[in-house]
Amino acid sequence: MTAETRRTRPRATADVRVGDLAAFRARAAHQRQAALDPRVVEHARRTIEAVRRRGDAAVLAGVRRFDRREARREDLWVTPSRLAAAARRCPHELSRAIDHAKAAIAAFHRRQRPRAVAHRGGAFRVDLVPEPLGRVGGCVPRGATAYPSTALMIGVPAGVAGVGELVLVSPMPFDGSLDPVLAYAATAVGAAGLYRAGGAATVAALAYGTATLPRVDKIVGPGNAYTTAAKWLVSADVGIDALAGPSELVVVASGDADPEAIVLDLGAQAEHGGGPFAALLSDDDGLLRAVAAAVGRLDVPAGTIALYRAPSLETALEAAAEAAPEHLSLAGRAAERLHTRARRAGAVFVGTRTAVAFGDYVAGSNHVLPTGGTARWASGLRVDDLVRWTTRVRAAGSPRAAVRAGAAVARYEGMTHHAASMELRG
Length: 426
Fold this sequence. Notes:
This protein is α/β, with parallel strands linked by helices. It has three domains: 18-35 and 245-364, Rossmann fold; 40-241, Nitrogenase molybdenum iron protein domain (Rossmann fold), CATH 3.40.50; 398-424. The chain contains 16 helices and 15 strands. It has helices at 21-33, 38-54, 56-66, 80-87, 92-110, 148-161, 180-188, 199-208, 225-234, 259-270, 285-295, 313-323, 333-336, 356-361, 400-412, 416-424; strands at residues 18-20, 77-78, 117-121, 124-132, 135-139, 165-169, 194-195, 218-220, 239-240, 248-253, 277-282, 305-309, 327-331, 347-350, 387-395. The strands form three sheets. Strands 1-12-11-10-13-14 form a six-stranded parallel sheet, with helices on both faces. A six-stranded mixed sheet has the order 2-7-6-5-8-9, with helices on both faces. A three-stranded antiparallel sheet has the order 3-4-15, with no helix packed on it. Helix 2 (38-54) crosses helix 3. It is globular, with a radius of gyration of 24 Å.
């Protein structure tokens, strides 16, 4: 789940061609290169500088330009009491759905709760102790509507981690209203408030603080290209989770997969704004033809769905691993049997019955996932991202052997005071 968009988008045409794995690798490389456009980075840099100088006034200028022309400074911040009041207007069906999703997310994330590590070896006891972050800012994108699901994906693990204070940020709607469904989700996760702005300006406000919004220890969650560029620029001064680019799905499917299910998964991925990429890799020509015919009838942005023929499922899976996509789906019994070999993806969805969309809402897994090939080293948002670790060392026995070894190495490195400090304890 990544960037939002508000633009009118060109739609897909019926002419869906099938490429080969070389074409797939080229497209994946293009996705990686487009992650941080230099022009976007420069715009984000100027915006950050303005917010550091002028605070909320600079943020408000951006809100008036991109979101709501009539916005006032007092419209930026929504207190917990106002969120709770708005949450009472959330339709019952949606409040029950959010409660269901929250319970599933919490059940999985509670299993991730970090535990202290203790070790006694030789003359020392060493402990590694988790400590919740004090203040976290969570970015909740906005498209035609708010994304309460992302508020849950950030807020639930923050609660499990024991974060001291969670502030959510989300762009202000054109009419200035407060979405009751987003308010319900924000209240459900105990948010300390909602700052109604988006893009680079809000990242700067979270990183450096304004009169309305104190600075945070870490910024997590997805956003548009300007949000991502700004997170990169401020990462020397504040923690960030990852650099989220356009949303991605690679489906590796065998001939026995259901074409209709694949088309819907590809179409669902193409609904994301900001230049998403959805690809099918298969070794079966019949399946590729069936999916190509159906994809042309989807009402999705043109160019976001592409199909590729692979010599085998194994080579398709290897190509998917090279791309390291946000989502990887294994469809069909033959493809599903390869699930233990699936690697380097933000999340893997096994079997045709496992719609990728379940992961966006109710599977319990987190939908804040690495994009742009960063799944080669990065992971989805988890509880451990919202704590820091402190190492504690205590002398607990005779240090003689440790003193001799430590002092010998210290003197070799020319650190005579280091050596003397240890020898004093011997």
